[in-house]
Amino acid sequence: MKDYDEIVKQIAGCTLCALSERRNRTVPGDGSVNSEIMFIGEAPGYNEDQQGLPFVGAAGNVLTELLAGIGLRRADVYITNMVKCRPPNNRDPMSGEIEACSTYLDAQIALIDPKVIVTLGRYSFAKFFPGRTISRERGKPRMWRGRMVYPMYHPAATLHNPRLRPALEDDFRNLPQLVAEVIALPDDTASEDETPPEQQMSLF
Ligand code: SF4
Prior knowledge:
The chain is α/β, with parallel strands linked by helices. It has 8 helices and 6 strands. A 6-stranded mixed sheet has the order 1-3-2-4-6-5, with helices on both faces. α1 runs antiparallel to α4 (95-112). The protein is globular, with a radius of gyration of 16 Å. It starts with a helix and ends in a 20-residue tail after the last helix. Residues 195-204 have low confidence and may be disordered. The structure holds iron/sulfur cluster. Iron/sulfur cluster (SF4) binds at residues 11, 14-17, 19-20, 26, 83-85, 97, 100-101.
């Protein structure tokens, strides 16, 4: 896809924020640009920075395992992060960095046009629904500008706190049905920025 290649090229040369100074490689995203499902994590870590691919370290193994559990391969979905360059020492991305990088993420969302956006962790959830708590909202799908946003814990969180793993597994298990439901929605059903709670999809 020509336009996608252009986004990747722009990211590769980007110096919009200070994360460009210490990166080894940019990490634009990976997977199918024709997928109905986009996963958005937080930021590249050491392995991602080395390989130029998202979710290839320990957290990536968790993501790959969970995808396999619902019959999906990484190549069946699109995977990216809020910021495309590794923050030093794997610190959290700062708001200015997220803001600077949002141009690329917004372009990816517009181009790939996923029906379902799975947010992994609090940073990507906050892009769509700021001020909400991931521990309260995870597993609850909401409509946002014609797409379903489905918040989950970040796979890395389950490595630090294995008690979160069952919740992440539950949320993955529900994903195929949610995707089928949102694909079946009439176009005008999904036009609000945020569907009021009483009109939200009824799976949960
Ligand atoms: S994190 Fe994003 S905005 Fe910052 S330098 Fe990398 S590509 Fe550019």
